[in-house]
Amino acid sequence: MSKAPEKPEATAAAQPPIPSPLPWQASQWQRLGAQWTAGRCPHALLVSGQRGLGKRRFADAFAALLLCDQPRHGLACGECRGCNLRVAGSHPDFIRVVPEKEGGPLKVEQVRELGEFVGRTSAREGVRVVWLAPAEAMNINAANALLKNLEEPSASVIFLLITDNPSGLLPTIRSRCQTIAFPVPPQQSALRWLSDSGVEGDMASSALVLAGGAPLLAVNLMEPEAKEIRDQFLADLTALTRGDENPVTLAGRWESPGEGADLNMLLQFWQSWLGQMLKARTTDQAVDAPIMALLQRLPGSGPESQRPLFGFYDQLLKARGLVTGNSNPNKRLLMEELLIRWSALFR
After folding, report:
1. Is the pLDDT of residue 4 over 80?
2. Per CATH, which fold does 223-345 belong to?
3. Do 247 and 336 form a contact (C-beta atoms < 8 A)?
4. How many other CB atoms are found less than 10 A from the CB of residue 113?
5. CATH 3.40.50.300 intervals, the chain
6. Better pLDDT: 161 or 259
7. pLDDT tens digits for 233-283?
8. pLDDT at position 9 over 60
9. C-alpha angle 2/109/169, rounded to 5°?
């Protein structure tokens, strides 16, 4: 079972920040807090939304509230015995289930081990919390093992399942959870938060577009490693449109991008660039020079020339669904197919 890493006890001199929701999560937090206060909190919550919206932070904040002995103003106090145990990674009524390696699956053995935790009584006469992410990383056997716990809920156990891709979960699991959905925040709210985080102006706007409106992902995209990968990927896609690169060679290069990005993120970049191309074609919206260079290479004009772009956009959406689901596609073949079709758009 993968659990939260051990940390030293918090001290008065180095008190960790109290977990709290992000500004755009206020309405979901208020509704859930009201349910908890009224004693009507569901035994299973599915925290859902696209990557980079702070779902794990929200789940951390709610878990902290549930385990706190003396909540204050709707948040954990950060000072009581329950909070200190949680911060130290040794709270007996909290378990965190994550893949053994980043990007790997949640194994059936990990989920089955929850049976002992769920079946025992609380060590502190309070609620017990199971924190599991990403929920879509469970294969069918792991999902069925979890379903047994959800179908026969134990008293005072709350499951927090976090997912970027709810469609990758069994319908029977989704039906036994109350979904806490997080849409993309309004642009001005996201830009204000980015400004407070030190990302401002055109840089913030561009990063937010690439991130699909997700503020936390936008911050990550400003890291040098992510920017280097993004720039090289766009350069390779552009070279392919000129016939200077081979789709099969590029597929081998990009099936596993390495540190700073993953295949789903690459596909999101690609989707964002294609979206900018479509907007520029349909509304004369200004775009960056590299995107304009791609537009100028596209054959044809008018509405008829946009149809292949929309078709390829749909293919990117399907590819992202495969990558983030539990079907375990052949990444090289998936990239080959996309790159071959991308190249054909410019012929």
Report:
1. no
2. Zinc Finger, Delta Prime; domain 3 (1.20.272)
3. yes
4. 15
5. 23-182
6. 161
7. 999 999 999 999 999 999 999 998 877 678 988 999 999 999 889 888 888
8. no
9. 85
Highest mean predicted confidence (pLDDT) among 7-21, 35-49, 293-307:
35-49
Greatest CA separation found in the chain? 70
Average pLDDT, the chain: 89
SS (H, E, C) 228-291: HHHHHHHHHHHHHHHCCCCHHHHHHHHCCCCCCCCHHHHHHHHHHHHHHHHHHHHHCCCCCHHH
23-182: which CATH architecture? 3-Layer(aba) Sandwich (3.40)
pLDDT of residue 241: 95
**For position 8, what pLDDT does the model report?**
32
What are 291's two structure tokens? Answer: 């995107």
- Cβ atoms of 146 and 112 within 8 Å: the answer is no
Task: Give the type of residue at 145.
Answer: A
Contact predicate 295/280, CB 8 Å: yes
What does the alpha-carbon distance between residue 98 and residue 116 come to, in Å, rounded to a whole number? 17
Domain with CATH 1.20.272 in the chain: 223-345
Measure Cα distances from 299 to 139, 171, 284, 309, 345 in Å: 43, 43, 17, 11, 8
Strands of the sheet with 157-163, listed across from one edge = 94-97, 128-132, 157-163, 44-49, 178-182
